[in-house]
Amino acid sequence: MSDLATTRPAPNPLANPWIRAGLILAAAVAAILLGAQLDSSGTLYAVFIDPFQQMIQAPDLLVQTIWEGLVSGVLYALIALGFVLIFKASGVFNFAQGIMVVFAALTLVGLYEKGVPAFLAVIITLGVMFALAVTIERVVLRPLVNQPDIILFMATFGITYFLIGFGESLFGGNPKQMIAEQLFLPKGAIDLPILGGLVSLQKIDIAAAVIASLMIALLALFFQYTRIGRALRAVADSHKAALSVGISLNQIWVIVWFTAGIVALITGIMWGARSDVSFALEIVALKALPVLILGGFTSIPGAIVGGLIIGIGEKLGEFYWGPLVGGGIESWLAYFIALGFLLFRPQGLFGDKIIERI
Amino acid sequence: MLYREAGQYKSNYASDMAVFPLREDRIGLGVMLAIALVAIPFLGNDFFIASVMIPFLVFSLAAIGLNILTGYTGLISLGTAAFMGVGAYSCYKLTTFFPHVNIIVLILVSGLFSAGIGVLFGLPSLRIKGFYLAVATLAAQFFLQWAFVRVPWLFNYNASGAIEVPQRTLFGLPITGAAATAETRYFVCLGLVVVMTWFASNLVHGRLGRSWMAVRDMDIAAELMGIKLLNAKLGAFAVSSYFAGVAGAMMIFFWYGGGEAADVFSIRLSFNILFMVIIGGLGSLIGSFFGAAFLSVLPTALKFGLPALGVPLTGATAEHVTFMLVGALIILFLIVEPHGLARLWQIGKQKLRTWPFPY
Amino acid sequence: MKTSNLMKGAALGALLASAAAIVPAAAQETIYFSNNAYRTGPFSGSGIPIGDGMRDYITMINERDGGVNGVKIVYEECETGYDTKKSIECYEQVKSKTIVYSPWSTGATLAAIPRAHVDKLPILSMAYGLSASADGTNFPWVFIPPLTYWDGASLMVKHMAAELGGLDKLKGKKLGLIHLDAPFGKEPIPVLESLAKKYGFELKLYPVAAADMQNQGSLWLSIRRDRPDFLYNQGWGAMNPTAVKEAVKNNFPISKLVGVWWAGGDDDARAGGPEAKGYKSLNFNAAGQNFPVIQDILKFVVEKGKSTTPKEKVGENLYNRGVYNSMLVVEAIRTAQKLTGKKVINPEDMRRGLESLNVDEARLKEIGMAGFASPVKISCADHSGHHKAYVAEWDGTKWTQKGEWIEPMKDEVRPLIEANAKDYVEKAGNWPKRAESCEKSS
ipTM of this model? Predict the structure, then answer.
């Protein structure tokens, strides 16, 4: 180990004459093709011109698409936030975040179905999430402390399996209605006439955006100004240093997992109100992964910005370019957007700079 | 007493560098091969061979493939299932084009297509590392799975989008299609897996394998030592995807026998194979077998074994209990031995060396 | 070295084998019927009511009549979680015991079809699975009553025509197909395409990837842009309630949204709230409790605490469909007993029973299902029958029948089925030629 921390300069690809020649050639070919295909039937027309024309012709749909993307982006960001919190504090890539969303929502709805009043059910669910955090810390994290990342990642898969079985055996696997009304979440839509069209904003989506923003603001305040928040940031910086100044890692982990549980509950309520509470939601949680690589594993603002970019990007892509290849590209477009960014910033947009030492 | 290296002298380099330097190990290997070749087909019933052994062999091969990438080269991939799918679909296309070529040849060739796609999606690995790479490989997973559904050429424009496995024979015996007996399919799978494992073992013990391990331990250092990262990393992606592709083709042709193939090669399968590798032991071929046994055989054994033992579990409850048990066992194993089942195996052998007089 | 876990496996196998030996010893004068169920996983919302309906009808037959002609049916479920891998396991597990294989997923059916023709085990895939398998000449062991997805697609076109006032009015209209991006979802496409060409309407496809079942935002934006006149929803599981919700959200006229029969769950429609009133679904069984057969189930099974279904859920659409499926099984057993004169039948007898199945109006009345379903008749060549179905409408609390029972366009569908079956058999290479002789009666 040397103290000389050398960051590797990214090799400038343009320095290579071959690459430069290739790029010029590619540009020339593209220009020729473009010239040949700019009439309204060519492929290039369909890819480069037509979608933008559509955007201009029907600006209301464009606004609506961006709004839809914004809302799903906020929800992706919420799931990603759960990942980031845990990754920062305990270095665990928490695969179980998706199932925690389902589990929290199921517990809430399941309790309500068993006759518990809605808000009491929320409080009990929070209690359950706290118990879960304590259990995970005791049973999984503590014995596995100091193990390689991949082992901890694996352990969260064990948690996922366990929670799937546990949740289903308690509450059954059939989809349930989210108790949106009982929680005073608004219903219906606001129709705004803009730009000669109609944009309809779902009140629940507005509520989701507001609640998510509030929650992020609260978390930021919590991290910035409380003792526990400072301890959390210390742990995120260095476990060993934090330990040496008397911060209890175990306590911090419980708090972080509990916070992730709260985030999961809120995510679950929002997604559940938009569609349904069922185990299929777990798959939606995978959508948070491109958000993570885009934003960086360690950055809360990254999770938010990443979520918005991915959300809006995939909706625009699917809506305007999807029909060209038969639709359904939403399932992978997010990963390619993230991959594109990653090639230029391997640590994500806001991630900690990777410093390699030898 | 039974298992001891004392008295076994090595008089040349070749015997010193052998993969199994101990006579006992070689005997053990022989015994196990004999069990696999003789005891299992004779003693196991159809259900056991078709639903336990064949999946186990297929998953073992896929896990070996991923282990080459993740365990030996240190690159995490979550796209294994998609690469398996590439193998399966290319094998299907190949056997449509060349119905008279032996299916085993085609299965081995289809791995090459998978290797090619693997290299393509492995390119970002030159720049991205760790979990970032893992998520980047998800792009391959989702894109390829989408392509399997969306490119009708891949499933011969079948109206239902499914692929059907035609009957192919080896020495006059049907080995694919429904007419092939479980035993025949098992023997073919076993043969392929043994040969491929031998191949993998030679690779990882050779020059390429050593360069992979150097890259895994520290890629900058490896680069300084003169290992070309480009070759090593892309080589690992190619070999790993080749194994995955062959495993995928085997999966559809010898196990599933056609059907909704796109659905089979889902993200869940990718995760499962990664977990087989981790549970079994990173960087260990035998660990791949252990991991495959643990994660593929255990749920089946619990589901059908528990009711058979008289535990009154049926239907959904059994499924829930299986899920919880598997989850708990994963955590338990990780706590007991984070380096995987392969490490337990090693410890066991170490203990056996000094038995019955441990010091 | 690696083979050491083969040893473990061998021990396990011995265990499984010994267990398998114990089980059938108890079975005397009973018929064993195993059903693939999925009470777990993302599709369990649809799987649970179906499984309950199937089990309750069989239990009712055992309780009320003491079985079929005195032979009790041993009903067991094999849990699949709608996973093809587990379905194949289930197939291997039950193939030597059950009289008929009930796959309950298109993927499982596709995987089982070649196996069943070798193992000589009949498959009953009720209105799901491979449409081409309606061709009994090439698929003697697969049964797909009362109709196929292709019939469903043609019914959708007929429904559109009826709403618009005639097939000639279809010209220039737009039909959108929302479908799960998997073989199941893509089934209706060929028929809709050929009908679109014939009647001059436009077909728009809206695929939903399995991962985006609950995330259909952009899809519905496209629907808003394209403004189709009708939407046909070939969806399953969590995809359906989401689609209904999105339709409501996007102000799509809900009465123009028609689901395939599998999109007609009560939970699917309920998700849309009061605005979902008017949501439609194709259907081949009636919903509700006002049938003698459902009353008997309530009396002999549910009220005696032998069911896992709460009383108010009995009579839901998917529950009744489970009942209908079990009815087909029971009637086929009865037919087989009559044909062979045996009391305890084997799979081969069951195949003959299914092939001669003829549940006419009189028989429906006898078993308390008058008006519950249309008569079903299967023949040697036609393993589906392409029977009538109707369009059901959600009235805000329950499914109601709207309009008449309509006949699918058999003359459109049948040639496609035969061509497709031929294609399947050719590609499979060495497909077993039908050796089973047809019954004289059919």
Answer: 0.85
